């Protein structure tokens, strides 16, 4: 069993090593992502927010302020629209998650019951509309029945077993049996 334990320890050590390697990989990926986001942010700011150069005269300053106000308003509108879209999407996502949860909860595999089903019905259920071949199992059964008809006739002639027993019971019945040569 010591060989087995060594094997198990080796497997556990390997698993731990793989875990730590995966975590290390994840950490480096997260760091790369953060650095890429920072670069993207700097590029966006450089493109959309040129460095501010303040003009000398009062009138030029007022014009600059008006431009900045207009820009702030348009950015604010964009931000609001984006927030509304985000809320709507989040709500949809939440609803879908709830639906999924409900469906998972409701659907329990039903206990299977035996169902009498003809071969045709079974093939139709399995193959859908593609099922064209007709398997008439009753034809075979009819052939068997033809052979059985003679037995059935005998049974009909014998009739109800209760009457036979009543007829054969007592001295009268024995006399009949004797006369019939049974």
UniProtKB/TrEMBL annotation:
One GO term describing the cellular component: troponin complex
GO molecular-function terms, A-Z: actin binding
A Pfam family matched in the record: Troponin
GO BP term, pick one: cardiac muscle contraction
Matching InterPro entries: Troponin, Troponin_I, Troponin_sf
Residue ranges that the Swiss-Prot or TrEMBL entry lists as coiled coil: 27-106
Keywords annotated in UniProt: Acetylation, Actin-binding, Coiled coil, Muscle protein
Family: Belongs to the troponin I family.
Subunit note: Binds to actin and tropomyosin.
Purpose of the protein: Troponin I is the inhibitory subunit of troponin, the thin filament regulatory complex which confers calcium-sensitivity to striated muscle actomyosin ATPase activity.
Name under which the protein is recorded: Troponin I, fast skeletal muscle
Protein's organism: Pedionomus torquatus
Organism phylogeny: Eukaryota, Metazoa, Chordata, Craniata, Vertebrata
Recorded name of the encoding gene: Tnni2
